[in-house]
Amino acid sequence: MDVLTDFPERLHRGITLYVGPEHQPLRLRSHRWHTAALLVAFEGYDTPERAGELRNQLAYVTTADRPPLPEGEYYHHQLIGLKVISEQGEVLGKVTEILATGANDVYVVRAEIGAEILIPAVDEFVRAVDLERGELRVHLAPGLLPE
Questions:
Q1: With the C-alpha atoms ordered 111, 114, 117, 121, is the resulting torsion angle positive or negative?
Q2: Which of 21, 23, 58, 141 is most solvent-facing, going by the fewest CB within 10 Å?
Q3: What pTM did the predictor assign?
Q4: Strand order in the sheet with 126-130
Q5: Any bridge partners for residue 78, and if so which?
Q6: 68, 72, 73, 74 alpha-carbon torsion, rounded to 10°
Q7: pLDDT digit string, tens, across residues 90-136
Q8: In whole angstroms, what is the distance from residue 50 CA to residue 55 CA?
């Protein structure tokens, strides 16, 4: 298994992972690291052929099994769909995608008229995240809005 999580320590014996597009619940029987990948065995998948049925599928954990993040940090899925509002109260659109650039993430905001606005995910531009209200308040520096 290629491990895409930042928290591989939560993958322990007995945890239930939800595999594939149908989110089939499977209990992790054992695991061990092999170079950068994780070799896993699930209960009920006792032959290589049976385990091969799971190849090239994503495995998920439930929200309850994900670790809490420090104050001011968010999981990407919490930010996708948030309404983006300028400091002046103008609705700019919704977060539709998050680009990982290496230095910092960039929020892709799709405006009502279809244009994209790229907002760096740094304190200079992101003023407040309110998950309960579904809002992301931003400061717009010159050049962030499309012409």
A1: positive
A2: 21
A3: 0.69
A4: 116-120, 105-110, 91-100, 83-86, 135-138, 126-130
A5: none
A6: 80
A7: 999 999 999 988 889 999 999 877 789 999 999 999 999 999 999 99
A8: 10
Tokens of 49: 């052929």
Q: Per-residue DSSP letters for 12-24? A: -TT-EEEETTTTE
At position 90, the amino acid (one-letter code) is E
Question: E strands, the chain, where?
Answer: 16-19, 24-34, 37-42, 59-60, 83-86, 91-100, 105-110, 116-120, 126-130, 135-138
Please report the domains of the chain, with CATH numbers, ordered by start residue. Answer: 8-65 (no CATH), 76-138 (2.30.30.240)
State pLDDT tens for residues 132-146: 999 999 998 876 676
Tokens linked to 90: 């103008």
